[in-house]
Amino acid sequence: MLLLAGKKAERTSSLASFATGSSAAPVRSSDRETPSQKTAIKKLKDLQIRRSEMVNERKKVRNYSIAS
């Protein structure tokens, strides 16, 4: 599609149907992931969960005050 003079393109179809063809069902990202990518994503999510737990614990320690 060629656009000239800053004119916007009309969106008659979604990008997913444009990329895969209008008759084909849209492809899910999980179908395109390899097993190694899935394990890497799982490890990354686990690390993010662990990091958020550590941040929350650090906040508790930082905000801890001894009542006198």
Helical stretch tally: 3
Helix content: 55-70%
Secondary-structure element order, N to C = HHH
Largest sheet: none
* Secondary-structure-derived class: mainly alpha
- If you compute it from the alpha carbons, what radius of gyration comes out, rounded to the nearest whole angstrom? 24 Å
Spans with pLDDT under 50 lasting ≥5 residues? none
Share in β-strands: under 5%
Topology, number of strands: 0
Distance between the termini: 72 Å
Outline? flat
- Round the mean pLDDT to the nearest integer and report it: 76
Topology at a glance:
Elements: H1 15-20, H2 29-32, H3 35-62
Task: Explain the overall architecture.
There is one protein chain. The chain is mainly α and 68 residues long. It has a domain at 32-63. The chain has 3 helices and no strands. It has helices at 15-20, 29-32, 35-62. The mean pLDDT is 76. Residues 12-23 have a biased composition (Polar residues).
Describe the structure concisely for a colleague.
The protein contains three helices and no strands. The chain has 68 residues and is mainly alpha-helical.
Kindly list the characteristics that best describe this protein.
3 helices, single chain, mainly alpha, 68 residues, flat, 56% helix
